[in-house]
Amino acid sequence: MRSAWRDALPYYPLLPLGALIALVWANAAGESYFRMAQALAFPVNDIGVAFGLASLAQEVLEAAGPDGTLPSRRHVWLAIASGVGGALAAAVAYAIYVHLAHEQVLIQGWPIVCSVDVFFGVAVARSVFRRGASVSTFVILAVVSDIIALVMISWRTCVAAADPTAWSLILIALLLSLAFRWLGARTLWPYLLIAGPIAWVGCYWAGLHPALALLPIVPFFPRARRPLADFDAHRHDRSSVTHFESLMAYPLQLVAFLFGLVNAGVLWRGVDTATWAVLVASLAGRPLGVLATTAGAAISGLVRDGDVRWRDVSVIAFIGSIGGVFALFLSTTVFPDGPLLMETKLGALATFAGAPLALIVARALRVGRFAPDRQG
Amino acid sequence: MRRLLLVAGIAVGLLRTASVAQEASFLPNRSGSLKFAAIGDNGTGEQPQYDVARQMDQWHQHFAFDMVIMLGDNLYGSQGPADFVRKFERPYKPLLDAGVKFYASLGNHDKTSNDTYAPFNMNGERYYSYVRGDVRFLVLDTNVLDGPQLEWLETILRESREPWKIAYFHHPLYSDGGRHGSEVELRVKLEPLFVKYGVDVVYSGHDHIYERVVPQKGITYFVAGSAGELREGDLKRSNMTAAGFDRDRSFLLNEVAGDDLFFEAISRTGVSVDHGVIHRRGTP
């Protein structure tokens, strides 16, 4: 567990600090905390998080690009199927729980449980598997799940507020990015200062969460190769200003701190139906979904028995149950400030319990660093 | 035998107390005043809800309130057509037959689609406003207190010219209920508007107790979430508790007469558990 935290820290150095301050503050002086959190929610969640998501997208794209390193095609398809299956099962588990609890108002929160905390999950995966195909498999599974969650949330709002002018702005931002790429722009500034704001206004106007604004632009950013299993391997080598995370290193730390500060302030007595629904869906629904999908793929012959290492898949399934910071963010996009958001956030934070759970499963099944040949 | 007599004596005493309490209501019952009842967390369809409803009907015989405000969780559990009968229409039938109107707000256990159920008088709106006499009632949906709702609320409050402004919704901004307590994140959004535009009284449910809170920034807050459900002993009294009752179910009677709002909380057995008068704050 300690090594998982150590691996996660490069991504979240200040986020836990912000979250800790928020938790103490909210429970000690709730009124002043919520006043601050609501004042900062817009700049942090709607603007700052856009840079955080762009950074994640850039890393994944580089790893998945033509020069990146991926596991075999069969593994990729299995990971994608597992991501879809896990997300679907989590959503179904959430819906069943909410239905049985007769709190239909919570049903709109189902996309929250589709999300997986990629950064923290990778850290846990690496603490178990070190390097290799299992970590890559987890990353693909997590990214697929997050894409499903974001698309579901965005689709609902887009349908509600379809506006051709807004979509035109997003298209203009895309065309500008294409032009910068075609002109061989070697720095990120034109993308961030010209295309970015246009896309942001377009998203805001279209009813899309504006934190998603940079995602369609990221594919046009200058890129470098990196291995998926270890996608921060060359973090310290990439000092070029053409690299997003190098350019944004300090601002992103500030965003992470503020994100924790603004979103993690929950009242302990806020535990209620949505908290349990998120927890049950994440810790039980998703692992079952991942395992069932993998079993289905094996039974149907899409993958050979030899392609699947069931013990590894079991651990990956539990690592995937960590909705963590991603679930926390998605909660804020689904529910406005109020008791339902509070309950959901508590559930999102509680999914960090998936980390020790995965380590326990790994130890019990003697997977990765717990394998007999890796010990002693 | 002596014990039996003692028990019988106590029972008779309690019944007489209830009866006396009914007859000696603290409400002025003036003609022309606006009279209304408040119930929250009522829709269980179980015997205690029926007992409270019967008590409301008995009080209605001599305190003819015109309307009932519902503070959410109007129906628990399944919410099919038969449930509306068992959990609403049947217990409140005498009141409905007497022409008493119910105006509902949505709780976390209510289906959003219940806003189209005609006897709730929500007209398909999850938040709405109406005027009765000198009172502007503001009914909010605190499940989803989003930007458009807050903008709507501010517009209504700004344009309201009625002397009294009363808001009601499910989640309490102030509560000493041990299970839920104050919803502080809602408070920081709503209280500034209530203070700025002169809201006088706020009613909520969610915590299954009765509590009257010491006026906060000039506004009196009631928690009346025990007209069906009850969380016995859940009231954790603090320095903001003006009065409370968590031993049995209860409902609240109110009368707006001129610049005064008289209130009286009645238990399931008809005992008056709190009463008083609130003076209008006046236009800020």
State the helical fraction of chain B.
25-40%
CATH class of chain A: Mainly Alpha
Return Rg of chain B in Å: 18 Å
- Determine the strand fraction of chain A and express it as a percent band: under 5%
Q: How many domains, in number, for the residues of chain B?
A: 1
Supply the CATH superfamily name of chain B. Answer: Metallo-dependent phosphatases
- Globally, the shape of chain B reads globular
Provide an overview of this structure.
The complex is a heterodimer of chains A (376) and B (284). Chain A is mainly α. Chain A has a single domain (16-368), classed as Na+/H+ antiporter like domain (Na+/H+ antiporter like fold, Up-down Bundle). Chain A is 67% helix and 0% strand. Chain A contains 15 helices and no strands. By secondary structure, chain B is an alpha/beta fold. Chain B has a single domain (6-279), classed as Purple Acid Phosphatase, chain A, domain 2 (4-Layer Sandwich), CATH 3.60.21. Chain B is 27% helix and 26% strand. Chain B contains 6 helices and 13 strands. Chain B has helices at residues 2-23, 47-62, 81-89, 93-97, 147-159, 184-196; strands at residues 34-39, 67-70, 101-104, 128-132, 135-139, 164-168, 201-204, 210-216, 219-224, 241-245, 250-257, 260-267, 272-279. In chain B, the strands form 2 sheets. Chain B has a 7-stranded mixed beta sheet with strand order 4-5-6-7-9-8-10, with helices on one face. Chain B has a 6-stranded mixed beta sheet with strand order 3-2-1-11-12-13, covered by helices on one side. In chain B, α5 (147-159) runs parallel beside α6. The radius of gyration of chain B is 18 Å and the shape is globular. Mean pLDDT of chain B is 92; it is low at 12-23. The chains are: A mainly alpha (376), B alpha/beta (284).
Short structural summary:
The complex is a heterodimer of chains A (376) and B (284). Chain A is mostly helical and 376 residues long.
Features:
heterodimer, A: 376 residues, mainly alpha, Na+/H+ antiporter like fold, globular, B: 284 residues, Purple Acid Phosphatase, chain A, domain 2, seven-stranded mixed β-sheet, six-stranded mixed β-sheet, 27% helix
